[in-house]
Amino acid sequence: MTTTPSAGRALPGLLDTEAIRKDFPVLDRLVHDDRRLVYLDNAATSQKPRQVLDTLAEYYERYNANVHRGVHVLAEEATALYEGARDKVAAFVNAPSRDEVIFTKNASESLNLVANMLGWADEPYRVDRDTEIVITEMEHHSNIVPWQLLAQRTGAKLKWFGLTDDGRLDLSDIEQVITEKTKIVSFVLVSNVLGTVNPVEQIVRRAQQVGALVLIDASQAAPHMVLDVQALGADFVAFTGHKMLGPTGIGVLWGRQELLEDLPPFLGGGEMIETVSMHSSTYAPAPHKFEAGTPPIAQAVGLGAAVDYLTAIGMDKVAAHEHALTRYALERLVEVPDLRLVGPTAAEDRGATISFTLGDIHPHDVGQVLDEQGIAVRVGHHCARPICLRYGIPATTRASFYLYSTPAEVDALVDGLEQVRNFFG
Amino acid sequence: MYQDVILDHYKNPHGRGLRDGQAEVHHVNPTCGDEITLRVRMDGTTIGDVSYEGQGCSISQASASVLNELLVGKDVSEAQKIQETFLELMQSRGRIEPDDAMEETLEDAVAFAGVSKYPARVKCALLSWMAWKDATAQALSGTAAPKESA
């Protein structure tokens, strides 16, 4: 197969990746002796720019202290940096108030936090045996298992939207799935396997009709598009820092202020209290009510630097870059014989995550032979096994792009897949 | 990693398909979705048959084929020794260079030495061997219900 790199480089809407890539030291790495790294596993985690790495180092070298506790200089500076990161995140997602931004350790904790709060809440939020929970078949395990646990503990009924053959939510029975009994609808904004961008408005409208709360898992959206929690109309939005250029160990839960006031805490400990006696305690107002113990301080500050980096480029430009790249990748991948896309085949309403199967060749083997060429992809069921079951496949190979990905890397993937076919053919 | 021996077994597997046995197990590798259903038929203390069906990568499929070729017809104590040797090789993280004695014991299974350098793939290579160990223990203890092929 001949490559057509010139076609890719002329794509409109691409960012200046040559300049951007200089900020990411790891992208210069050679692997397997002399292979240039082609990193296409961004849906698993993103690489980090020097600006974030420097911020982390500087935090520990100059400011390290516990937050909200001491009166000394470092404690005050560390607190200002930590709370400054909250301001940055609040602005990044257009939160009406900074107090609506809760730092967690990852998106999984954010999702579990909501599930647990609703199990312990008073009316009208309480999930119990007479109520229903709604999710979808394209959720990451982190947005399935917490709800299964909640359903098991409370006796609530767990329901879900199925998928269409072309990788979108089947909302044809939305009025039967979301009913007067529904207390919470939790769904993913952008699928980590299919790349599908889900129709938020339609789901939120139905949920609001019946008075159900809405939680959106934006883990694969926050890094890649403009995320406006007010425009989404949801009650809670969860995402994680490490997929959006930030460090691991820091996640976010945004929630509407009145809900955060009404709902009970999840973890108890230091920082989340107002007063404590041996008999009972009262709690600090949100967000601190939900941040028990020493938080991930450096990680929050690092996430703040990542938000600065993304904001300077512009999330609309990041989205345009990825859209152009996705369109090009889809065009090129359909040229590969025996390749079957798992997910929408058009670039519309679709993120830069592309899953596929390659004939009968197992994704593990695809991934291994690609790795030998320096190409990093994810293989397996991507923590979303129900999707594989739905489409009757054991696993997929997944290539996922980001703001530093290039058309040349798409070409490298296509060439690499040709080598895989030759090897196992 | 992909030795010709492995690719040969992958493309032309030995003993694939489920046949009669005294015990059946189903093992999965949750990280990747590889799975195998495996049956063991004991003829006294001899491994009468190891039959299997499953889906997975070339490493897991070839490993099951090698297992069938290597263990069927052997006395169970010898088969267990082979299994332990294979396990040792696969857990060596590439540090064991198979010597003549090991090659004699493992035959084609020596080809998997390179796989041991890839932690993510070791489980693929061991899937059928762990299933065999489990099924054999059940068959020997007589706790398992006999399985017949359809």
From TrEMBL, chain A:
<dbReference type="GO" id="GO:0030170">
    <property type="term" value="F:pyridoxal phosphate binding"/>
</dbReference>
<feature type="domain" description="Aminotransferase class V">
    <location>
        <begin position="38"/>
        <end position="413"/>
    </location>
</feature>
<dbReference type="InterPro" id="IPR015424">
    <property type="entry name" value="PyrdxlP-dep_Trfase"/>
</dbReference>
<dbReference type="InterPro" id="IPR010970">
    <property type="entry name" value="Cys_dSase_SufS"/>
</dbReference>
<dbReference type="InterPro" id="IPR015422">
    <property type="entry name" value="PyrdxlP-dep_Trfase_small"/>
</dbReference>
<dbReference type="InterPro" id="IPR015421">
    <property type="entry name" value="PyrdxlP-dep_Trfase_major"/>
</dbReference>
<dbReference type="GO" id="GO:0006534">
    <property type="term" value="P:cysteine metabolic process"/>
</dbReference>
<keyword id="KW-0808">Transferase</keyword>
<protein>
    <recommendedName>
        <fullName>cysteine desulfurase</fullName>
        <ecNumber>2.8.1.7</ecNumber>
    </recommendedName>
</protein>
<keyword id="KW-0663">Pyridoxal phosphate</keyword>
<dbReference type="InterPro" id="IPR000192">
    <property type="entry name" value="Aminotrans_V_dom"/>
</dbReference>
<dbReference type="GO" id="GO:0031071">
    <property type="term" value="F:cysteine desulfurase activity"/>
</dbReference>
<dbReference type="Pfam" id="PF00266">
    <property type="entry name" value="Aminotran_5"/>
</dbReference>
<comment type="similarity">
    <text>Belongs to the class-V pyridoxal-phosphate-dependent aminotransferase family. Csd subfamily.</text>
</comment>
UniProtKB/TrEMBL annotation, chain B:
<dbReference type="Pfam" id="PF01592">
    <property type="entry name" value="NifU_N"/>
</dbReference>
<dbReference type="InterPro" id="IPR002871">
    <property type="entry name" value="NIF_FeS_clus_asmbl_NifU_N"/>
</dbReference>
<dbReference type="GO" id="GO:0005506">
    <property type="term" value="F:iron ion binding"/>
</dbReference>
<dbReference type="GO" id="GO:0051536">
    <property type="term" value="F:iron-sulfur cluster binding"/>
</dbReference>
<feature type="domain" description="NIF system FeS cluster assembly NifU N-terminal">
    <location>
        <begin position="1"/>
        <end position="124"/>
    </location>
</feature>
<dbReference type="GO" id="GO:0016226">
    <property type="term" value="P:iron-sulfur cluster assembly"/>
</dbReference>
<protein>
    <submittedName>
        <fullName>Nitrogen fixation protein NifU</fullName>
    </submittedName>
</protein>
